[in-house]
Amino acid sequence: MTARLAQQGNKIYTVVRPESARCVTLLPGIRVIELDMHQYDRLADAVNQPCDVLVSMAWNGLRGSDRDDPNIQKYSYENSMEAIRASLSLGCKTVILAGSQAEYGICQKPISEDTPCNPISQYGRYKLKLFYDAAELCSKHGVHLKEPRFFSVYGAGDDSGTLMMSLIKRMQYNRDCMLTQCTQLWDYLYIDDAVDAVMGLVEKTCDDGAYNVAYGESKPLKFYIEALHRLTGSQSRLLYGSIPYPDSGAVEIQACIDKIQREIGFSPQFDFHNGAARLIQDQKIKL
């Protein structure tokens, strides 16, 4: 996303963790600021120039047991609020927050932005708290706030521990894949389409509030896994049922994206076959 904005002639300040492995050579017009999250109270001084938009994507504790660690999640919430305060002092008129479907909790029916939020994880609770508290703060300052609520986004550079990335790796080496029954409905969105959604929220006039960001079409998880199996040409055994569902039951994702389609004309360009093929090719290059 930073590359696209820079190519359009925008001046970008991109904040990364010190010595971040993901901090690659960036385009002209992009200034890199190295700050850890607990240093976001220094952000305004580090930038020291008027800015128009804050796009806040940083968060610790996205996976595993960290998602239910209240200390880790509170840390991310508090420092995200510091980033928003810094952006207001720099004159930003729009704040874009990275939200999550975890804010809704477990739903067995299509999820719209009007669906009541009942998060079950500390991650979801603190994401939702950030949304509410940031909205109140921005409203007091006459600043627009929009929260893309991401469902399941995949693509190059994703964490190796995600289901998609771990399965591709195992399939490329023809290793057995231990799986649940994989009958739950899921919705995968390719990263380029997710970037298009955020770009639209930055550039277009639209209502404030939450926006579901997903492909908008749910299929059984088994559909995606077997597509990966075909695309990789793997001999891996798909061992459905070898991992039990948790006691809380299987999580399903059925995202309604009517709002973002209506407000900014969002329309995903990559179906799962095309997006997954690009990701698999990217992973082959890295082998």
Describe the structure.
This protein is α/β, with parallel strands linked by helices and about 290 residues long. It has a domain at about 160-190 and about 215-285: Alpha-Beta Complex (UDP-galactose 4-epimerase, domain 1), CATH 3.90.25. It is built from nine helices and 13 strands. The chain has helices at about 1-5, 45, 70-90, 120-140, 165-170, 190-205, 220-230, 260-265, 270-285; strands at about 10-15, 30-35, 55, 95, 100, 145-150, 150-155, 175-180, 185, 190, 210-215, 220, 240. Strands 3, 4, 5, 6 and 11 form a five-stranded parallel β-sheet that branches. The model has no long low-confidence stretch (mean pLDDT about 95).
Task: Describe this protein with a few key phrases.
UDP-galactose 4-epimerase, domain 1; 5-stranded parallel sheet; alpha/beta; 9 helices; 287 residues
Describe the protein's topology.
Elements lengths: L1 H6 L4 E5 L13 E5 L8 H5 L5 E4 L13 H20 L4 E4 L1 E2 L21 H19 L3 E7 L1 E3 L8 H10 L4 E2 L6 E2 L1 E3 H13 L5 E5 L5 E2 H12 L5 E2 L18 H7 L7 H15 L1
Parallel strand pairs: 1-2, 3-4, 4-6, 5-6, 6-11, 7-10, 8-13
Antiparallel strand pairs: 9-12
Helix pairs in contact: 3-4, 5-7, 7-9
